[in-house]
UniProtKB/TrEMBL annotation:
<protein>
    <submittedName>
        <fullName>Uncharacterized protein</fullName>
    </submittedName>
</protein>
Length: 225
């Protein structure tokens, strides 16, 4: 495990972490995508499962836990008072990070801010490629909700390219074939290369973690060279 992951772990209470997990459940249709947890109780026993709901009653907090995770065809849930929990182990950290991404509020990005972002990415890529690289985005005609997607993914693309161009052989191959990077939004992640233009299509409704999105972009970009 990379220690950089720890930076994304919240400093929080057992109660707040249970609430957060329950909020994850509100964003999904199938509980199998929720983080698998191990709960340590005051009596010394462990419970393994997924938190699927949270509610308060008479100043007490309760969670519903699905604990049939190894037998998905059997529905088995039970109610637990939160104050019985003294520790929580996140057994599936990727699923936790995905949940964090799902509940993040959509950031409102203005046209001017996105243009500044595009310029900063071009400056970063110029240093990386040792030549000017044009980032082509139809900013003025983007819907408001799509601007934040492009804004975030411009950084992902730059990070993926930094990882790809970490050695001289890759840098030489990519450098001579790319002068423009054109970015748009589709219903899938897709990368193609034609006439020195690297076309990168971003998936609009993407529930992958930031790390996984960068990994996918890196693999798809590498596949066209």
């Amino acid at each position: 495990m990379k220690l950089s992951f720890i930076e994304n772990l919240p400093t929080t209470s057992t109660l707040e972490l249970c609430k957060q997990m329950a909020n994850f459940a509100k964003k999904v249709v199938d509980s199998s995508s929720l983080p698998k947890l191990e709960l340590l109780l005051h009596n010394g026993t462990f419970i393994t499962g997924r938190i699927i709901n949270f509610h308060e009653n008479a100043n007490k907090q309760y969670i519903w836990i699905e604990n049939n995770i190894d037998i998905p065809e059997k529905i088995n849930v039970f109610l637990l008072e939160v104050n019985q929990i003294i520790g929580i182990s996140i057994l599936d950290y990727d699923a936790y990070q995905t949940g964090v991404e799902l509940v993040k509020p959509i950031e409102i990005i203005g046209v001017l801010e996105l243009k500044r972002k595009k310029k900063s990415i071009e400056e970063l890529l110029e240093k990386l490629f040792a030549k000017p690289i044009i980032v082509s985005v139809d900013i003025d005609n983007l819907y408001e909700e799509n601007r934040s997607i492009i804004y975030k993914n411009l950084s992902f693309i730059a990070t993926a390219l930094q990882e790809i161009l970490s050695d001289e052989i890759s840098k030489s191959v990519v450098n001579e074939k790319v002068n423009i990077i054109q970015v748009n939004i589709l219903d899938r992640i897709e990368v193609t290369l034609s006439n020195e233009i690297l076309f990168v299509s971003i998936k609009k409704d993407n529930t992958q973690t930031s790390a996984n999105q960068i990994k996918i972009l890196k693999e798809k970009i590498e596949s066209v060279f």
